[in-house]
Amino acid sequence: MARAQVMLMAVALVLMLAAVPRAAVAIDCGHVDRLVRTRLSYVQGGPGPSRQCCGGVQTLHNQAQSKSDRQAACYCLKDLLLMPGAAPRAAVAIDCGHVDSLVRPCLSYVQGGPGPSRQCCGGVQTLHNQAQSKSDRQAACYCLKDIAGRIHNLNKDNARSLAPKCGVDLPYHISLDINCNSV
């Protein structure tokens, strides 16, 4: 019975996150933990979901505005729901607002301009140094895909060459088609 409740809760959360969001916030696993984890007795076989649990799920739904926030929330929820008895994991340090501020100086270069600038490479190197865990790398990847998808006149060759030109060695190639689950 508890497994069925886990699956039901997971499906409900994913469907809520896939709906059109209403407010902006950067989502990280620490935030998801705070909103949902302590209220998941239902998933662990307890009685129906509490008002607090539903409130946490609704808050998360309202805050997951961008596609990358919804993807990050789903990634965190997957871990949370598959291991509901596990200790809360550390908060992911990477959120899309942070990523955007780090790579914003690279905009002219990825649109085909000269560069990359020293500020751009500094942001790329900082992001690389901060994204040490798999969940941080995946969160950064989803954010970068979302940001790149909104750039008018994106020069894909410049975007692909950005990390190496900034002295960052990645074991994968950056593209709009990258599977962020594999980074």
Question: What report would you give on this structure?
Answer:
The protein has 183 residues and is mostly helical. The chain folds into two domains: 2-82, Hydrophobic Seed Protein, CATH 1.10.110; 96-182, Hydrophobic Seed Protein (Orthogonal Bundle), CATH 1.10.110.10. It has helices at residues 2-18, 29-36, 51-63, 67-82, 96-103, 107-110, 118-130, 134-149, 156-165.
Brief rundown of the structure:
The protein is an all-alpha fold.
Q: Can you tag this structure with a few keywords?
A:
183 residues; mainly alpha; Hydrophobic Seed Protein; 2 domains; 57% helix
Number of strands: 0
Count helical runs: 9
Number of domains: 2
Strand content: under 5%
Low-confidence stretches: 1-8, 10-25, 86-92
Which CATH first-tier class of the largest domain would you pick?
Answer: Mainly Alpha
- CA-atom Rg in angstroms: 18 Å
What number is the mean pLDDT? 74
The rounded distance between the terminal residues' Cα atoms is 34 Å
- CATH fold name of the largest domain, please? Hydrophobic Seed Protein
Q: What is the overall silhouette?
A: elongated
What is the second-level CATH architecture of the largest domain?
Orthogonal Bundle
CATH homologous superfamily descriptor of the largest domain: Plant lipid-transfer and hydrophobic proteins
- Helical content, roughly? 55-70%
Helix/strand order: HHHHHHHHH
> Largest sheet, if any?
none
What structural class do helix, strand and pairing data support?
Answer: mainly alpha
